[in-house]
Design goal:
There is one protein chain. The chain is of the alpha+beta class. The strands form four sheets. Strands 1-2-3-4 form a four-stranded antiparallel beta sheet. Strands 7-6-5-8 form a four-stranded mixed beta sheet, with no helix packed on it. The longest helix has 29 residues. The mean pLDDT is 85.
Length: 299
C-alpha cells in the first residue's frame, strides 16, 4: 500500500510538468490514483485495528477456530490443541507450500496462502470426489494420480472443503484418519508399490501357522511404531531346521505385523518387485534370515 503513495511522491519529482505537487491541478487519473494510495492503507489500518479488539477475537482466523471451541473455552484453547498436535512427528502432512494438508490425531486442516480450513476428525465425513491422472510427475518419470477428497463436517458453522493428494499417499492418510473414506465416484485408486506389497504380505501371513505365546509372557509395544503391541514371531516353518537359507530366530516378539511388513519391503530390490515375495531378509534384531512363510501371528 505504501508503495503507491511512494510512487506518487516520486513522480512529483520525476515529472514536475504534471504538477502533481498541487493536487487540484493534477489530472483526473492522478487524482484517483492519489486517493486510492491514501485510502488503501487507511482502510487496512482500520481493519487491523478492528481485528485486534478483544484480544484479536475478531480476526478471521480466531473466528474460524472459535467454531470448534467448547462453551467454557475459547479459540485460544483450540489453537493450543492444534499447536500441540502439529509439533508431533506422527502427523500426516502433504501438499505444496501454498496448499498444505495436515492431519493430526484430532484435526484435519487445509492451509492455503490466504485461508485456513479446520475440521475435527470426530465430526467429518470424507468422500473421494475426483481423480486426475498425469503422465509424468514433477519428481519422477512415472505416471501420477491425484485424488480430490471432500471433507464435510456435521458442525453447521464449518464449511466443507476439498483436499488434494497423490494416490500413493492415500494409504498413509487412511491410517491417520478415524473415519472411513467413501469412494462416491468409484475411483480406482493407484496405491504405491509398498502399500500393495504390505496388503499382500499381511494376507499371506494371516494364513501361516500361528505361534502360541506362553501364558506367562507379557507382550510389549512394537519397537517399530510403539503404537500397538507386538503380535508376530519369527519361526522357521518354510523348511527343515538345517535346510535352506532361512535361519531360526530366537528373539522374543518385538514387532507388529505392519512394521515387519514395512521392514521386509525396505530390504527388497526396488527395481525387481517380482522377487519380493520369494526373497529372504534378515531379522531386524538378530539378523537371522527369514521369509514370509516364517512370519507367524501370535495366538
Amino acid at each position: 500500500m505504501s508503495f503507491f503513495a511512494g510512487y506518487y511522491i516520486g513522480m512529483c519529482f520525476a515529472a514536475p510538468e504534471k504538477q502533481l505537487f498541487y493536487f487540484y491541478q493534477a489530472s483526473e487519473s492522478w487524482k484517483i490514483f492519489f486517493l486510492l494510495a491514501i485510502l488503501a492503507p487507511t482502510v487496512t489500518g482500520i481493519l487491523a485495528y478492528y481485528w485486534s479488539q478483544s484480544g484479536w477475537d475478531n480476526h478471521p482466523l480466531a473466528r474460524t477456530l472459535a467454531f470448534h471451541a467448547l462453551p467454557q473455552s475459547g479459540w485460544r484453547a483450540v489453537a493450543s490443541s492444534i499447536n500441540t498436535e502439529f509439533r508431533r512427528i506422527d502427523k500426516f502432512a502433504t501438499g505444496a507450500p501454498g496448499a498444505r494438508v495436515i492431519v493430526t490425531d484430532t484435526w484435519v486442516m487445509k492451509v492455503t496462502t490466504y485461508s485456513l480450513h479446520v475440521a475435527q476428525q470426530q465430526d467429518i465425513h470424507l468422500t473421494v470426489t475426483d481423480s486426475r491422472q498425469h503422465e509424468l510427475s514433477p519428481d519422477s518419470n512415472m505416471p501420477v494420480q491425484f485424488l480430490t477428497i471432500r471433507v464435510a463436517s456435521i458442525n453447521p458453522y464449518v464449511k466443507a472443503f476439498d483436499i488434494r493428494l497423490n494416490s500413493t499417499e492415500y494409504g498413509e492418510l487412511r491410517e491417520k484418519l478415524h473415519a472411513p473414506i467413501r469412494n462416491a465416484a468409484n475411483v480406482v485408486i493407484h496405491q504405491s508399490l509398498s502399500d500393495l506389497f504390505l496388503e499382500t504380505f499381511t494376507s499371506l501371513v494371516e494364513i501361516n501357522q500361528t505361534y502360541p505365546v506362553p501364558s506367562n509372557q507379557e507382550l510389549e509395544p512394537c519397537i517399530g511404531c510403539m503404537q500397538t503391541n507386538a503380535n508376530i514371531k519369527l519361526v522357521k516353518n518354510c523348511q527343515e531346521p538345517n535346510e535352506g537359507e532361512c535361519q531360526q530366530c530366537y528373539c522374543r516378539p518385538m514387532w507388529c505385523l505392519t512394521c515387519m511388513g514395512k521392514w521386509f519391503a525396505s530390504r527388497q530390490d526396488q527395481q525387481h518387485p517380482e522377487t519380493w515375495l520369494s526373497s529372504q531378509v534378515p531379522c531386524p534384531t538378530c539378523r537371522a534370515k527369514f521369509c514370509i512363510l516364517d512370519v507367524c501371528i501370535i495366538q
